[in-house]
Amino acid sequence: MVIAKKWIYAKAFSGYPTADNFRLEEETLGELKEDEFLAEAIFLSVDPYMRPYMLQYPVGSVMIGGQVAKVMESKNPKFPTGSYVHGNFGWRTHTVCTPSVGDRKPYVLPDFGKEPLSLGVGVLGMPGNTAYFGFLELCEPKEGETVVVSGAAGAVGSLVGQIAKIKGCTVIGITGTDEKCEWIKTIGFDHAINYKTADIREELKKMAPKGVDCYFDNVGGITTEIVRGRMNTFGRISVCGIISSYNEERAKVIDPQRDFVGKQLKQEGFVVSRWTARWMEGIEQNLKWIQEGKMKYRETITEGFENMPKAFIGMLKGENIGKAVVKV
Amino acid sequence: MVIAKKWIYAKAFSGYPTADNFRLEEETLGELKEDEFLAEAIFLSVDPYMRPYMLQYPVGSVMIGGQVAKVMESKNPKFPTGSYVHGNFGWRTHTVCTPSVGDRKPYVLPDFGKEPLSLGVGVLGMPGNTAYFGFLELCEPKEGETVVVSGAAGAVGSLVGQIAKIKGCTVIGITGTDEKCEWIKTIGFDHAINYKTADIREELKKMAPKGVDCYFDNVGGITTEIVRGRMNTFGRISVCGIISSYNEERAKVIDPQRDFVGKQLKQEGFVVSRWTARWMEGIEQNLKWIQEGKMKYRETITEGFENMPKAFIGMLKGENIGKAVVKV
After folding, report:
1. Do B29 and B72 contact (CB within 8 A), yes or no?
2. Rounded CA gap, A84 and A98, in Å?
3. Chain B residue numbers touching A257 (CB-CB < 8 A)
4. For A57-98, how does the pLDDT look when each residue is reduced to its tens digit (9 = 90+)?
5. What is the pairing mode between strands A94-97 and A37-45?
6. Tell me: the pLDDT tens digits for A249-307?
7. Contact B261/A253, CB-based, under 8 Å?
């Protein structure tokens, strides 16, 4: 008999989450039925999307999210005991999973070689594929172009900048501390702007004298308004997230439509699940780039399942560098 | 010796243009050189784009614009005397044209059959191609989808709605008078909203109960903010113009990026010259639809070259229905 711990969405989010939005509960899991397996969480993901997405769920739901887990017991030959899987099981230590149920299927992790399993919720999982597909498919960067990435020291942004470098672009990252600015330059960004202390508009004039061709947007709001104003004709914008407004009112911005006409800009928002059919392509390519030394990653690991809310809140406040992960 | 009349951009635009922004001048034209021809304007176009575009030109320039003209004399065998041409000659009665100079080449009008020559600056010219390419290429409408068009009784919007009907869509037009609402319904729009008297949000809920798939935007601003809020996942927005802000400050709108992510929207702005290589395709298709009775057009014709400013100002104020044209 297995007792699972799980974090419950105890009170609806309003503004920045606090401890009282969450409640830790226990649940006794039953016997496995045919096709099911029992998974034990090893690494859990905390991601920005959880903040807006939870608003769609009733209070009392388990917090949503992906995890790397070990199969402890199985009645499904595709998920043998001892294998490592990725599953969207939510904030739980143990899960009885019926793989045939639900949209977002669990999968056995491919061989990561010498790389740690935690990457299954990072560069070799959802954030990695978000960067890979969301940037390459929607921005269609060309060699010699100038790329701006907001949220540049985060799990996704830090990878987008490196993929842009691999594709031969000049890359400017926008992030919120000097430490983050330093770090993204060590992994290959050409320039970094601390939006809390610098004038983004003036910096972009200097760093991108020929204008901006691609913008990978993690933040929205005023930052995006300013970057859009520096874009070139036929510029492409991939909208991944809107961290600037997850915990606050959406900003009022200058009507963007004029820039779209005058510069013939293209903008597309996305949710990475649209590339589910190509999921392993993204993981394999990112792993290859890591093994070739072309892609670096960084994780901010919080120890202890009991610290899930703390890790989540810290991530929303930008305290992490790279991917925020919780180790059970 | 030919004396041309021409309208000069006498004072920079600020707010709605008035008579003192323009000055009528005369110019004596010289002898034709090799490859040149002399054209006499028959129909001149006044279009919304002229308002923002003129800001790029110094005061003292001739007002820009397209016209249907007759070749009166020619030293270029491709433009024989007596032929009818379209040229971006500006607001002039007579022009000596060197076809090899400039980006936007003059062309001999194809045979319009029984249709009037004025259509060469309308449905069988730039506005027609704006509707044809800007809608079909960027919105990619599918049968059964719901399409919203703003500026729906204008030269472009009225055609977009009809093309959407030809493609099997449900079409909602947004425009500014009850008379315009009535007219667009007579040419096939399923629904019409008078944005000056109706609540667009509430009307769209009723008229588009399954949401909006495509939005062809001529206006920007608050109208666009509201339409975007009713769009479906994978909705497409083609941004053609921003009439709402040509003569006024750009409105502040709610940061649109969240809608883009959540609904995976795609938006692209355009200038119709990007389809120059396919120009005749658009004219031929629109002519075919007219001859088949599938596309109606309407013109608001102002008589007299001396009334160019009046026609232009009236068009910017929405006094025209369909295409605003000046007959010399």
Report:
1. no
2. 16
3. 217, 220-221, 224, 239, 242, 245, 269
4. 999 999 999 999 999 999 999 999 999 999 999 999 999 999
5. antiparallel
6. 888 999 999 999 999 999 999 999 999 999 999 999 999 999 999 999 999 999 999 99
7. no
Query: Which one of B257, B258, B271, B275 would you mutate to disrupt binding with A, by most A Cβ within 10 Å of its Cβ?
Result: B257
CB-closest option in A261, A270, A271 to B269? A261
The whole-angstrom distance between residue A20's C-alpha and the CA centroid of its chain comes to: 24
**Chosen from A225, A257, A265, A271 to mutate, greatest number of chain B CBs within 10 A:** A257
Given this model, what pLDDT does residue A193 score? 98
Strand residues in chain B grouped as ranges (E)? 2-9, 22-29, 37-45, 67-74, 84-87, 94-97, 107-108, 146-150, 170-175, 191-194, 212-217, 231-239, 252-254, 266-269, 299-303, 323-327
Q: What are phi and psi of A137, to 5 degrees?
A: -75, -35
Size of interface A-B (CB pairs under 8 A): 115
Q: What is the dihedral sign for C-alpha A123, A124, A125, A131? A: positive
| SS3 call for B284 | helix
Residue type, A194: N
**pLDDT for position A253:** 93
User: What sign does the CA torsion over A299, A301, A305, A306 have?
Assistant: negative
pTM to 2 decimal places: 0.95
Residue B258 distance to chain A (closest CA, Å) = 6
State the pLDDT confidence band at B249, using cuts at 50, 70 and 90: confident
ipTM value: 0.94
What are the chain A neighbours of B217 within 8 Å (beta carbons)? 257
CA distance A282 to chain B (A): 20
- Out of B221, B240, B266, the one facing A261 most closely (by C-beta) is B240
DSSP B215-275: EEESS-HHHHHHHHHTEEEEEEEEE---HHHHSSPPPEEE-THHHHHHTT-EEEE--GGGG
Contacts of A256 in chain B (CB under 8 A): 253, 256
Query: Mean pLDDT, to the nearest integer, of A217-225?
Result: 96
8 A C-beta contact, residue B200 and residue B191: no
Q: Which residues in A have their CB inside 8 Å of a CB on B?
A: 52, 217, 220-221, 224, 239-242, 244-245, 250-271, 274
The A146-150 sheet, strands edge to edge: A191-194, A170-175, A146-150, A212-217, A231-239, A266-269, B266-269, B231-239, B212-217, B146-150, B170-175, B191-194
Confidence bin at B63 (pLDDT 50/70/90): very high
Q: Of B210, B216, B112, B81, whose CA–CA distance to B157 is shortest?
A: B216
- Per-residue model confidence as pLDDT tens digits over A98-149: 998 877 899 999 999 999 999 999 999 999 999 999 999 999 999 999 999 9
Residues of chain B positioned with their CB less than 8 A from the CB of A47: none
Strand-pair category, A146-150 with A84-87: unpaired
Q: Please list the residues that pair with B38 across neighbouring strands.
A: B73, B96
Residue type, A134: G
pLDDT at B100: 86
